[in-house]
Design brief:
heterodimer, A: about 500 residues, mainly alpha, MetI-like fold, B: mainly alpha, about 70% helix, flat
Chain lengths: ~500, ~300
């Protein structure tokens, strides 16, 4: 009996293994005739899995150690005065070591340089100790990667030993605040390292002359004067290659306003049309979210092809329209007013050079981004419409309100909680959204379709003006911050959401 | 108006009235107008997508044509074959599966990490009162004001110093935290809607916080977790600009970088580009359309609460 139940428990796993194996062999058999042309192979897959596994293991171990450390601070108290000194001593030591390790991380990524002095010696202590163990292990014949892993494990074991000692010397204590802090700690650490730290770095970089010539930060010099120079260049010089800051800024405002207006207007229109009981509603809804569902990268690149001057969809349609107008104008050439009108239309409406003409290039990215953005807004607004109770409209109808009055006095005010954040996020996102621009026109011709963020991207990764880019980024951030603060003041803040 | 009631109406007037004037619900005229508008809007929404399919089916010699037919003449699957399995006769191998694998491995790890971080800290923000809570929440929202391109430069330099350019880990690091703040907000909004009584009852019965979290909160918020996961997965799945900077070698490309190489070649390989796009877009779109109902509820979770 015992054996049988054990077998039964293992059976699902067995199924999984058999399933996966047979899937693998089936796939292999299917693909083998074409195997020559496929560059992906099992070796690559396994290598990547190993890489990721090691990475996850390292992160989880690190987080676990930090969590245990803070757990002991919050939830354990020393059992007697003597253990108190030992525990606090150990905890200060570990905390200090961690701070030193973080400082050396900052130094390694070039946030600051310590040079060669006593300070640097102290800061490097933890990492040097780690490196010492590693080189000792390589000395006795271990491979470099393995030595790193083993020394990591050794350090972890030492830390766990210390934690165990602290645990033995302490008694539990009740802490109300401990748990939430422990819970937000991992996210906080992540945000600290990947958002706050780069931000600090950016501020530092803004006051430097870092560029390709200085090998990024390696030979860069820092000082207020460089920051001032960067700022002056930003407002008076060129932002990427040709474009001037204020031109680009006004284009960005235009880009944001036009896009958000069309998104909200079009979204509202579609949502109002869809928000009524009718046949085929689900069908229309599915079709209408297509532009949102298709990955942006694909949509943008496909649309780029459609703006081709000869074979793109838009110019094909315009050419057809033009030839139709020409034939009509030839037919109506004797009709007094109409003939002239069609003649004028035929000579003015026709294929457009989407890529060479700055105006039409800007129109092309606007068309693309509006097409991409309307479904999102209409879906949001539709959600808002559905949350409005029908009773309001019935009451208004009894009072004899017109459709327009109902829309103005019921729909719009009740949509506000949905609409306001959507518009604000829409503005910020559109202001920062340049993948469509980058993929369709790449800012061309002559950077006449660049917006601030895409100019910044170019300054950094095409012209390698790092210090300048950092200052540029800070200015963009300040612009957005001012906008947000004005909005927050106008709308009464975020109080309701944080309570 | 007595005059209208006294005179008998002609059938034509009656029909016109029935057609244009609303009696109960929408008049037929209005219904037709609405359907016509929606049909036009649907065509505008769908036709460009269909064009991609059309171009992918064109044989190589008629790639450049001004025809607007949806199914092209002499439709062929050659482009798909070349994208998937390469072309031995041209001695050209296919990186398609490699790109997909790169994207998939990077993005799924990223999404899992950010989901775990967000799920746990959103619980703290939703259920506990502690000093720094409101500041923390507003701070998280503020990070969304930072342009994505803005932190790219320092992140790039940081990864370069750590020698992580051109590695999958570099991109994982660059992606992993970007979606965390918004996810925390979404999940917090959802946790807020779960009654606290449930947890208190469990706590009185002797469960600890961990059990409460894993046995009550997580199962109850599966929809929100699924949405958040999908969001962060979709966000990373078709991301181009960050990947462009971090990955510069062909064998580590994610698919957006990969299919862009089709467009960069000397003569743009429209057919192959379109075939690859269709192959990638179809599963994503099916997933998206299937889950769009949840997505919508997830988007409005935070805002409709008050």
């Amino acid at each position: 009996m015992e054996d049988k139940s054990k077998l039964r428990r293992l059976l699902p796993y067995l199924y999984w293994i058999v399933g996966l194996l047979s899937g693998y062999f089936l796939l292999n058999a299917l693909i083998s005739p074409f195997a020559w042309g496929i560059t992906l192979n099992l070796g690559i897959v396994l290598k990547r899995l190993g890489e990721i596994g090691g990475f996850l293991f390292a992160i989880l171990t690190g987080l676990a150690l930090v969590e245990i450390y803070f757990y002991q601070i919050f939830f354990r108290q020393p059992s007697n005065p003597r253990s108190r000194t030992t525990i606090r001593g150990l905890q200060y030591l570990l905390g200090g070591m961690t701070v030193l390790a973080i400082l050396s991380f900052f130094e390694k990524t070039d946030l600051f340089r310590l040079g060669d002095n006593v300070m640097a010696g102290i800061v490097h202590l933890p990492l040097n100790a780690f490196g010492g163990v590693r080189s000792a292990l390589t000395g006795i014949g271990l491979a470099k990667g393995a030595a790193g892993a083993v020394s990591g494990i050794v350090f972890t074991l030492v830390l766990v030993g210390i934690f165990y000692a602290v645990h033995k010397m302490s008694v539990p204590r009740v802490s109300k605040l401990g748990l939430p802090y422990l819970l937000i700690l991992p996210a906080f650490v992540g945000v600290l390292f990947l958002i706050i730290y780069p931000f600090m770095f950016e501020i530092k970089l803004a006051f430097s002359n870092a560029s390709l010539g200085t090998q990024a930060t390696k030979n860069a010099e820092y000082g207020l004067i460089y920051g001032w120079q960067n700022l002056v260049t930003l407002f008076t010089g060129t932002v990427a290659k040709d474009a001037k800051f204020f031109d680009v800024f006004f284009r960005t405002v235009l880009w944001t306003v036009i896009n958000v207006t069309f998104h909200v207007g079009g979204g509202m229109g579609l949502a109002l049309l869809l928000h009524r009981p009718m046949k085929l509603q689900g069908f229309y809804r599915t079709l209408l979210v297509f532009p949102w569902a298709i990955p942006t990268t694909i949509a943008a690149m496909a649309l780029r092809n459609e703006f081709d001057s000869r074979y793109g969809l838009f110019n094909i349609l315009l050419t057809d329209l033009n030839s139709w107008l020409v034939s009509v104008s030839q037919g109506t050439v004797n009709v007094p007013l109409l003939g002239d009108a069609f003649n004028w239309l035929a000579s003015n409406i026709g294929p457009v050079s989407w890529k060479q003409d700055p105006f039409w290039a800007f129109v092309s990215i606007l068309i693309s981004n509006i097409w991409l953005g309307i479904p999102f807004m209409s879906v949001i607004i539709l959600g808002g419409l559905q949350s409005i109770s029908q009773e309001y409209y019935e009451a208004a109808e009894i009072d004899g309100a017109s459709k327009f009055q109902m829309f103005r006095n019921i729909t719009l005010p009740l949509l506000r909680p949905v609409l306001t954040p959507a518009i604000i996020l829409g503005v910020v996102w559109t202001f920062n959204k340049f993948d469509v621009i980058y993929l369709i026109t790449q800012g061309g011709p002559q950077e006449k379709t660049d917006i601030l963020v895409s100019s910044m991207y170019k300054a950094a990764f095409q012209f390698y003006r790092y210090g300048f880019t950092a200052m540029f980024a800070l200015v963009i951030f300040v612009i957005l911050l001012i906008f947000t603060l004005i909005y927050l003041r106008a709308s009464g803040g975020l109080k309701s959401a944080t309570e | 108006m007595n005059s209208t009631t006294s005179k008998p109406l002609s059938p034509v007037t009656k029909a016109l009235r029935w057609f244009f004037v609303r009696s109960r619900g929408d008049s037929p005229f209005k219904t037709i107008l609405i359907h016509a508008t929606l049909i036009v809007a649907s065509i505008i929404a769908v036709y460009p997508v269909l064009r991609v399919v059309t171009i992918s089916l064109r044989p190589n010699d008629t790639l450049l044509t001004t025809s607007l037919r949806i199914i092209p003449e002499n439709a062929t699957l050659d482009n798909y074959k070349e994208v998937l399995f390469g072309a031995p006769e041209k001695n050209r191998k296919s990186d398609f599966f490699l790109w997909i694998w790169n994207s998939f491995s990077i993005v799924s790890v990223t999404s899992i990490i950010s989901m775990i971080l967000a799920a746990v800290s959103a619980y703290a923000f939703s259920r506990f009162k502690f000093p720094g809570r409101a500041v923390g929440l507003v701070f998280l929202l503020t990070t969304q004001m930072i342009p994505a391109g803005m932190l790219l430069l320092p992140l790039f330099i940081m990864l370069a110093q750590l020698q992580m350019i051109n590695t999958a880990l570099g991109l994982i690091i660059a992606y992993s935290v970007s979606t965390v703040p918004l996810t925390i907000w979404t999940l917090k909004g959802y946790y807020d809607t779960i009654p606290v009584d449930l947890e208190e009852a469990a706590l009185i019965d002797g469960a600890n916080r961990f059990t409460v979290f894993t046995r009550i909160i997580l199962p109850l918020s599966t929809p929100a977790l699924a949405i958040a996961f999908l969001f962060s997965f979709m966000g990373g799945w078709s991301e181009y600009l960050v990947a462009r900077v971090v990955l510069q070698k062909n064998d580590i490309y994610t698919w957006p970088l990969g299919i862009f190489t089709y467009a960069q070649q000397f003569t743009v390989a429209w057919g192959q580009f379109s075939a690859a796009s269709v192959l990638i877009a179809i599963p994503v779109m099916i997933l998206f359309l299937y889950s769009s109902k949840w997505l919508i509820s997830g988007l409005t979770l935070g805002s409709v609460k008050g």
